[in-house]
Amino acid sequence: MAGNWKMNLNHLEAIAHVQKLAFALADKDYEAVEVAVLPPFTDLRSVQTLVDGDKLKIKYGAQDISAHDSGAYTGEISGAMLAKLKCTYVAVGHSERRQYHAETDEIVNAKVKAAYKHGLTPILCVGEELDIREAGNHVAHTLSQVEGGLKDVPAEQAESIVIAYEPVWAIGTGKVCGAGDAQEVCQAIRGKLAELYSQELADQVRIQYGGSVKSGNVAEIMAQPDVDGALVGGASLDADEFVKIARFRDQ
Ligand SMILES: O=C[C@H](O)COP(=O)(O)O
């Protein structure tokens, strides 16, 4: 269960938030579900210090990565910098990056490779806009983003990727993709991984669903055979709610 905070919570709020999560999750059930947070870049050092100092099992990562290693790229953050902060994950190709920062599949692919180069696990975000779904092209569109993001990525790297299926029309809108609809696309993503690599690799890759996930709908989504986790936006900003989502099995 990963919480993408997007552009919310400063570094002080981040500390309080992660402390609350860690306290609420620190019991025997905690290890049953891997919990990760993706704070803004400016929070990462504070989160790292807290996680290291208190030996928390919460994982963390960034919301984006530069395709470049270093140099004159004002405002960018490199994979080496994220690795130095001991990030585990980095989201790549989130629809908000594709929409507001014109990230193409080529750029997303370069970022996936940059993540692997620096030992980070990419969470490759894919998913269709509303008009594409209404035209019935959601599966083909999403699979082409999977293929584009993984172009020339070898199996020994791709086996650790996390893929987040996030239909754009369900992000932050309260419109949840039906569990069956989410399953349809997640199953197709697994099929595409089997085609690109092998069934064995496809079976071990974690596929998340994202888009208005809340404590009230997570159990139904997680019951789908090809949904292995969730990438949670808005609801991850409320620590109590995010804990309920991570504890979906208790429902
Ligand atoms: O990365 C998370 C997704 O964009 C979902 O956001 P949301 O839970 O606010 O709809």
TrEMBL record:
Quaternary assembly = Homodimer.
Q: Where is this protein found?
A: Cytoplasm
Function per UniProt: Involved in the gluconeogenesis. Catalyzes stereospecifically the conversion of dihydroxyacetone phosphate (DHAP) to D-glyceraldehyde-3-phosphate (G3P).
Catalytic residue list: H94, E166
Pfam family membership, one: TIM
**This chain belongs to which protein, by name?**
Triosephosphate isomerase
**Mind telling me which PANTHER family this protein's record contains?**
TRIOSEPHOSPHATE ISOMERASE (PTHR21139)
Catalytic activities: D-glyceraldehyde 3-phosphate = dihydroxyacetone phosphate
Q: Does the keyword Isomerase apply?
A: yes
The record lists the organism as Streptomyces prunicolor
The principal localisation class reads: cytoplasm
Entry's Gene Ontology molecular function annotations: triose-phosphate isomerase activity
Q: Which UniProt keywords apply?
A: Cytoplasm, Gluconeogenesis, Glycolysis, Isomerase
Q: Give the record's pathway.
A: Carbohydrate biosynthesis; gluconeogenesis; Carbohydrate degradation; glycolysis; D-glyceraldehyde 3-phosphate from glycerone phosphate: step 1/1
> Which CDD domains would you find in this protein's record?
TIM
Q: Does the keyword Repeat apply?
A: no
What's the Enzyme Commission number for this chain?
A: 5.3.1.1
- What family does the entry list? Belongs to the triosephosphate isomerase family.
Which sites bind substrate?
N4, W5, K6, G172, S212, G233, G234
